[in-house]
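Section 5: illustrative case.
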């Protein structure tokens, strides 16, 4: 392997690593705002975000069941991701509104 190929590989590895480190630093700097927005959205919207995550967890397992062709199981398999995504997106919209209000207050 030539020196140019090793350099190219190193650059392709270094760029994402540096980017993730930069994003982590920005998240650490903004963590007080993130916590403030989380506490200001209210327990119902926090519940929506948490339930969206929890309801998405069993979907891959359910798709691998031998009973997946049985109509009630197939219905649950199709319905569960839609409900979970709806919960999650509803909570994220409330969180985004709260974060926007905090950012507007700081400017």
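Designed sequence:
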């Amino acid at each position: 392997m030539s020196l140019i190929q090793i350099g190219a590989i190193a650059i392709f590895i270094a760029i994402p690593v540096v980017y993730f480190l930069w994003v982590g630093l920005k998240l650490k700097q903004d963590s007080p705002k993130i916590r403030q927005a989380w506490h200001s959205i209210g327990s119902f919207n926090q519940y929506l975000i948490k339930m969206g995550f929890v309801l998405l967890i069993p979907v891959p397992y359910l798709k691998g069941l031998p009973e997946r062709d049985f109509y009630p199981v197939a219905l649950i398999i199709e319905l569960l991701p839609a409900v979970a995504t709806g919960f999650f997106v509803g909570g994220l919209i409330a969180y985004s509104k709260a974060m926007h209000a905090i950012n507007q207050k700081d400017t």
